[in-house]
Amino acid sequence: MGYSFWLKTWMAGLMLTLMLAGVKAAAETIHLRCASTTSTENSGLFKYLLPIFEKKTGIHVDVVAVGTGAAIEIGKRGDADMLMVHAKAQELQAVQEGYFVNRHDLMYNDFVIIGPAGDPLQIKGLTSAVDAFKKIYAAGGPFVSRGDKSGTNVKELALWKAAGLDPKGKPWYLEVGQGMEKTQRLANEKRAYTLSDRGTWLATKDKDRLEMQIVLEGDPSLFNQYGVMVVNPEKHPQVKYKEAMTFINWLTSPEGQQTIAAFRDAHGNQLFIPNAK
Amino acid sequence: MGLRLEAASLRKTYNSNPVLRDCSYAFAAGRTYAFLGPNGSGKSTLFRILALLEQADAGQVNYLENGAALGQNLELRRRFTLVLPRPGIFNTTVFHNVAYGLKIRGVKSGELEVRVREILASVGLAHKRGQRALDLSSGETKRLGLARAMVLAPEILFLDEPTANIDPRNTEIIEDIILRMKAGGRATILMITHDPAQADRLGDELLYFKDGRLLAG
Amino acid sequence: MSDLLSFLGGLDLQELWGIVWLSLWVSAAALMLATAIALPLAALLALRRFPGRDAVINTLHTFMGLPPVVVGLFLYLLLSRQGLLGFLSLLYTPGAMVLAQTILAWPIVASLAHAAIVNVDPVIRQAAVTLGATPRQQAVTIIKEARYGIISAIMAGFGRANAEVGAVLIVGGNIAGYTRVMTTAIALETDKGNFELGIVLGIILLALALLANLALRRLQRRGRGAGLEMSSWA
After folding, report:
1. Which of A167, A196, B18, B52 is 20 to 30 A from A217, alpha carbon to alpha carbon?
2. What is the set of domains in chain C, with CATH numbers?
C-alpha cells in the first residue's frame, strides 16, 4: 500500500470526523441538560421517565449525575439548564442568591436509618430520628457518613445539629466521601449505622447482600424532598429556558406526577411519592 | 562524458588519530582502480570524502569535466554513487529498493519498470523482485546494494568491499557483474578490497593505502 | 440464553452496543487529532537540529506523565460556561471527551514516533544520500523506514485514549446514551455494585486490547525491530 494512499485515507477520516461532528451538532434533537444526583440516576427513575417525556415533546434530556453539591455548582456556573436535586434548604438559598428561578417541589422519598442485623444499639423502637442519633452518639457508634455534601449528607448533618451534637472527628464517625451504595457497603463491613434513602436501600440490600436492616423510619424529619428549578436565564442567557420549563411543567402536572408515582424499581417498590403543588 | 575525479592533499583526523595524512591522486575516466591496504586503515573514510559524504579537514576533492571544475551540487552528486559495505537496504521489496534512485530522480513508471527489470536480471534477483528485501541472504543483499547503484548508470562508481563476508558463489556472481560493467566501458570504478587476487582480476590499476597515504602499485 | 441476558444485568444489548461504538468513535477521532499534532513534531525533533531541541524533548516526556484527572479538571474549567472556551458549548458532549483523549494521547504518539524515527539505522540516511536524495527526500525515506514503529506509536496512543476514565468522566459527564463510554460505564456499574456488568464491559475492553496487541506484534515483526518493545495498554 502506498503512503499517499494511507495519508489520503487518514485525511479523509479526519475530514469525515469533523464533518460528522458538525452535522451531529446541527441535526440533533434539542438537548436539555439536567444536573441531578447519583442516587436519583441510580434509582433508574430517569431511564424510565425520560423516554416518555421525549416521545411526548421531542426534547432529549441529558442527565449529568453528580453529588448534590456539584450539581448545584454546575447549575450556578451555567453548565446545565436545570436541576433536580434533593436539598431544599440549599436550593432555596441558591434561588435567593439569584442563580435559579421557578423552583418547585417535585416528589419525595424518605430516608431511613439502617444498622447491623442484630441492632446492637437497640435503635429499633425509637420513633424520633434525633433521639436515635443521640443514642448512637452516646454509645460511640460506629456510624458511617457520606461526608460529600450530598442531599443525604446534608440531612444527616441537620439531624446531628438538631440533636445538639457534633460527631466530627470522633474515631467512630467515618466520613467516606462516597455515593450511597458504597457507603452502605462500607457500613455493612464495619457493622455500623448509617443514614440512607429508601430507594437506594430497597434497590441494593439484596443485590449487595447487606446484613443490615431498617432500624428507624417514618419520622417526618426524614423526608427527602426533591425539587426542580431552572438556571436563571438572566445570569446565563444561553440556558434552554423554554425547554426546561416544558420539562418542569410536565413533571409537576397531574400527568407527570402520576407517571412518577407509577415508577417501580426492579423489586416492584414505589420509590418516589409525588408532591408537587 | 569524461567526468574525472581528483583528490588533492586530503587530510582527515578522527579523535587525534590522523586517518588521512596527504592523499592525492588523479583518477582517469573509464578506468577501474582497486584499493588495497590493512583493515581500518581509513580507506572507507577516503571513499566517503571522495563521494562528498564527508568533509576533509584539509585538501580538496575536485570533479572535472573538459578541464573545468564542476560545482558540487545535487546535479553533480547524482552522477556518481557509493555502495557502502553495509548497503543500508530499505525495508520494502527488492523491486522498490532498486527503483528508489530512479524514483527520486523523477523517472516515469514505464521507463522505471524497464530499467529495474533489466538490472534485476543482470544481478540474478529477478525472481525475488516482490520479496521483502530484508529477508535476503547476505550475498543477495550485496547484489541488491550493487543493483541499486547500477540502475542509475553512474559515471563514477565507488564500491566499498563489494564481496566482503559473502560466500564464494556470490563473490563470483558479483565479480562477474563488475567485469560486465567494465566491458561496457564507460564508468570509472573505484573499489576497496582485501583480496589482492581480486584486485588483480578486476582492477586496471592497483593503489595501496598505507599510513594515510595513497601509493600507486 | 436468558441466563446470559440476566447476566447482563439490565443493560440491553442496544445500550451496550451504543457504549462500545461511542468508545471506539471517540478514541478514533482523538487519535486522528493527536496524530496530526504528534507526527510532524516527532519528525521535526528527530530530523532537525535546532536550539532548545533537548528542552522540547524533555517537555514532551513530562507531558506523558500528566495525571489524567488533572487534565480533566483543567479542561473542565476551560470548557465550562465561565471558562475561556465556554462559548464552544463543548462541556458534557463527546467533543469534550475527544479533546481530553487527544491531550492525553498525543505526547505518547509523539514520544514513541520520535523514538522510532531516531532508531532508524543511520546507514539508511547514508544510503539515501549515496543514491542522490535531497535532504527532503532523505527525511521522507527515513520516516518511511520507521513506518512500523510509527504505526505502533499510533496504536499505543489509541490504547491510552481508550483506557482513559478520569478525564472523560469529568468533561463528559457520563450521560446515559450520550457520553457514556466503556470505561466510564464500568466505573458507574462498579459503583452501583453491578459487578457482573462491569466485568462484561471489562472483558470487551480487554478483548479489544488483546486484538490490538496481536496486531502490534505483527507490525513489530515486519518492522526492522529497532528494539522498540511497547506494552501500550494502561
Report:
1. A167
2. 10-222 (1.10.3720.10)
What is the mean predicted confidence (pLDDT) over A206-220?
90
What is the SS3 assignment for B79? coil
Instruction: Say whether C193 and A77 touch across the interface (CB within 8 A).
Output: no
The pLDDT mean for chain A works out to 89
**Closest-CA distance of chain C to residue B114, Å:** 19
Å from B145 to nearest chain C CA?
Answer: 9
pLDDT at res. A1: 46
Q: Residue A47 falls within a domain, yes or no?
A: yes
ipTM for the complex? 0.92
Q: Which domain holds residue B101?
A: 3-216
Is residue A155, in this structure, part of any structural domain at all? yes
A138 and A92 in a common domain: no
pTM passes above 0.90: no
Output the average pLDDT for chain B: 92
Residue B140 burial (CB count, 10 A): 22
Q: Per the domain annotation, does A255 fall within a domain?
A: yes
Domain assignment present for residue A1? The answer is no
Interface membership of C232 toward A (CB under 8 Å)? no
> Dmax over Cα atoms in chain A, in whole Å?
80
Put simply, the answer to whether A266 touches C10 (Cβ < 8 Å) is: yes
Cα distance between residue B134 and residue A52, in whole Å: 64
**Contact (CB<8Å) C132/B78:** yes
Q: Which stretches of chain B are assigned E, i.e. beta strand?
A: 3-14, 17-27, 32-36, 58-65, 68-69, 80-83, 156-160, 188-192, 205-210, 213-216
Q: Work out the average pLDDT over C188-207.
A: 81
Q: What's the pLDDT band for A24 if we cut at 50, 70, 90?
A: low
Closest Cα of chain C to B158: distance in Å? 10
Chosen for mutation from A64, A207, A209 (greatest number of chain C CBs closer than 10 Å) is: A64
C81–A64 C-beta distance less than 8 A: no
Assess whether A68 and A20 both reside in one domain: yes
Mean pLDDT of all residues in A55-61: 93
Q: Tally the domains of chain B.
A: 1
CA distances from C197 to A107, C12, C187 (A): 30, 11, 10
Structure-block grid coordinates of residue A58: 421531542
- Tens of pLDDT, residues C1-41: 556 656 555 667 788 888 999 999 999 999 999 999 999 99
Q: Chain A within 8 Å of C14 (Cβ-Cβ)?
A: no
Q: Residues of C with CB below 8 A from A22's CB?
A: none
Query: Does B91 contact C145 at a Cβ distance shorter than 8 Å?
Result: yes
The CATH number of the domain holding residue B143 is 3.40.50.300
Mean per-residue pLDDT, B164-178: 91
Burial of B40 by CB count in 10 Å (0-12 exposed, 13-18 middle, 19+ buried)?
exposed
> Closest-CA residue in chain A for C189?
A42
Q: Could you tell me if A51 and A188 lie in one domain?
A: no
